[in-house]
UniProtKB/TrEMBL annotation:
Its EC number is 3.6.1.-. It comes from Alkalimonas delamerensis. Its main location: cytoplasm. This is Small ribosomal subunit biogenesis GTPase RsgA. One of several proteins that assist in the late maturation steps of the functional core of the 30S ribosomal subunit. Helps release RbfA from mature subunits. May play a role in the assembly of ribosomal proteins into the subunit. Circularly permuted GTPase that catalyzes slow GTP hydrolysis, GTPase activity is stimulated by the 30S ribosomal subunit. Signal peptide: none annotated.
Amino acid sequence: MSPKRRLTKQQQARIARHNQKRLDTSQGPDPAEDAIYLAAEPGLILSRFGKHADVEAEDGQVIRCNLRRTLTSVVTGDRVVFRRARQSQGGVDGILDAVAERTTVLLRPDFYDGLKPVAANIDRIVVVSAVLPEFSAHIIDRYLVAAEVTGIPPVLVLNKTDLLDASQQKALEDQLQLYQALGYPCLWLSAKQGQGMAELLALLQQGTSILVGQSGVGKSSIMNAILPELALSTQQVSDVSGLGQHTTTASRLYHLPGGGQLIDSPGIREFGLWHFSPEQVTAGFTEFQPLLGHCKFRDCKHIKDPGCAILQAVADGSISEQRYQSYLRILTSMAEDKPNHF
Ligand SMILES: Nc1nc2c(ncn2[C@@H]2O[C@H](COP(=O)(O)OP(=O)(O)OP(=O)(O)O)[C@@H](O)[C@H]2O)c(=O)[nH]1
Ligand SMILES: [Zn+2]
């Protein structure tokens, strides 16, 4: 093994000075840059695209900034330190100096590229499902596992309830009852007719939320209903292209009229679970958590193992058979779908 390279005293001092300047928001990293930029200020990333980001300053202004090359990961929702340029250059009006530590980060497992951060500092994941194309408790369970493992509280929204007849309604009420009993807030919605929209808005008024769910469940319809600003831009896109859909996959943060933020992130609407370990999936089932460590064998897989506390709970009905079957399906699908590098 080669000996560790030691830094000289001068090198150490230079690095220390550099780090100190980066942390000190009252001074830029390089005094020569003060001729180009104003004082550092805190900001919020609304959107990131390539080498640029739209940063919202505390006065509400949006400033398009260049990213320092040292900043490798900057995503929508990041809290940052930036400086306005004294003069606009080529449509760019500032520079992004530093990114604050994130409370949460949503990672998108890309089949080819590995894990990619797509949004940061999210307080709530709104899992949208619908009675059409088809209601699937299993898919809801996948989203719930992802949310639990990521550490962001989920909320369930059932959309298109205007299409239900009485018997379908009863069956779905039972389904949502199960999730409600697990501690997940559930909301009945019709983005089309407006039922439940006021309750949803009230829920989104605190913190930053993101909508996820399968294609066609009505995420865009919900967003357009609560964000006139977005409805307008979608409309404009549809007028030009005739496609009526977003042409970009970039995430963007919007402020809601009565408070709270909503991140529109087409790239994370459906996410895989490849990057989770089987143990994480187990822990992602909230009702399994109190039983973990109570199985007879320490390495219990909770599948066929004798003395398994989870299997026992399924047998006596305190854990729902449906949720347990969902758990098994997730484990199987992970083993089948997993790309080599996860
Ligand atoms: N009946 C009914 N239809 C709805 C409702 N909400 C949305 N839809 C319809 O469902 C279809 C899909 O809605 P979108 O909002 O595009 O769904 P999405 O989840 O954004 O789909 P992707 O963009 O593919 O991810 C559209 O034809 C909507 O008009 C609702 O509450 N009731
Ligand atoms: Zn077990």
